[in-house]
Design goal:
Layout: H1 2-11, E1 16-22, H2 23-28, H3 30-47, E2 52-58, H4 70-81, E3 88-93, H5 101-112, H6 116-129, E4 136-140, E5 146-151, H7 157-177
Parallel strand pairs: 1-2, 2-3
Antiparallel strand pairs: 4-5
Length: 178
């Protein structure tokens, strides 16, 4: 009973729960982590049915470049182990400089859910660029902060990092001129 009260305190009013796990821990404790995801999802369905579960699979920089196909293998592995009626989103993230955009992308995707307007715009853009290659679409606010991004799957991480650096320089130059 006490555990149930703690769960209610933790999850009541939640709209998105983020579960962060590190790649090395996943390799060591795969079954335990999958059980955790299932348990959290069941608690959410009971206490806050409209809430979503988001999984950050962190420290992807520890996966060698040649083994990056593990992303789809890991996603398939988790999806096979979890009952079909449990839905959640997985983001592969890293704080390593060349992959830092993964964190921004994951949080941006979560934050978009809180704005109906941004959600609608993102869906429209995603539909428009779906059949193309090499596209990065960034929407900025009046301060030139990126508030929405849509990227085709073929874009290389280094290019995304480069674009963010260029945008940062443009913002700096605009501030010093204006």
């Amino acid at each position: 009973m006490e555990e149930e009260e703690e769960q209610k305190k933790a999850f009541t009013g939640a709209s998105d729960i983020v579960y962060v796990l590190d790649y090395p821990i996943y390799i060591e404790k795969k079954e335990l982590i999958i059980d955790d995801i299932i348990r959290i999802h069941k608690i959410l369905r009971k206490i806050e049915p409209k809430a979503t579960l988001t999984v950050f699979f962190h420290k992807i920089d520890l996966i060698s470049q040649k083994n990056r196909n593990l992303f789809s293998i890991i996603t398939d592995e988790i999806n096979r182990a979890i009952p079909i009626n449990l839905s959640f989103q997985i983001y592969f993230t890293s704080l390593q400089p060349t992959l830092i955009y993964t964190i921004f992308n994951a949080f941006a995707e979560i934050m978009i859910k809180f704005s109906q307007k941004l959600t609608s715009i993102k869906k429209i853009i995603d539909r428009q660029i779906h059949n193309f290659e090499g596209i990065i679409c960034l929407i900025t606010d009046e301060k030139n902060n990126v508030i929405l991004q849509s990227i085709t799957k073929d874009i290389q991480p280094q290019l995304i990092r480069f674009i963010y650096k260029v945008l940062s320089e443009i913002r700096k130059n605009k501030k010093s001129v204006g």
